[in-house]
Amino acid sequence: MTEAIPYGTSETRAGDDGPVHVLHFVLHLPHPVVRVWAAVATPEGLPQWLAAADLLEPQLDGAVRLRWLNAEESVEGAVVSGRVTAWDREAVAEYTVGTHGRIRFHMEPAPADSLATVLRFTNEFSGPDGRRLDNLAGWHQHFEYLSDALDGRPADWSVWTPERFEQLRAEYAARS
Predict the structure, then answer these.
(1) Which residues contact 89 (CB under 8 A, 6 or more apart)?
(2) CA–CA dist 157, 137 (Å, integer)
(3) What is the reported pTM?
(4) Strands across the sheet with 79-88, in order?
(5) What is the pLDDT of residues 81-133, one digit of tens each?
(6) d(CA 40, CA 93)
(7) Can you name the residues that pair with 154 across neighbouring β-strands?
(8) 3-state class of 44 per DSSP?
């Protein structure tokens, strides 16, 4: 991995159906916005680091179906459907899907370097605190894959193992 991914942060508030967690990551990526957009908002880019976009209608209220490639389809949350809840080409892509909740990617050129991108990521979902830790670790690991994919090294899902995820989860638990 060429770029160190900074730790994400989280906040929790009371919701109608239990705790609502909001995760935040801010990534400084040495790639132009158009390249980062292609990775987070196209069916060709998403499988290189996150999930197969079996369906992605690139417009507000479009349908989306994501299939995580590091999990068996029988695992809860491995295949989720939902809607595109925000869409502003090369700026904002937001998907609200099943158990993963609201997943928002906001991109802008880095202030000091127009060939770099600041990616602000938010994930909002309901669930127990253990799920908050799982999602922090999972997104962190996927952002490591994103960095590699942007550098021309897409994830090889056939060799994925849970060790890195477990290490990250333990680190996030220790930081809580």
Answers:
(1) 37
(2) 17
(3) 0.95
(4) 9-15, 18-29, 113-126, 101-110, 92-97, 79-88, 63-68, 51-56
(5) 999 999 999 999 999 999 999 999 999 999 987 799 999 999 999 999 999 99
(6) 7
(7) none
(8) coil
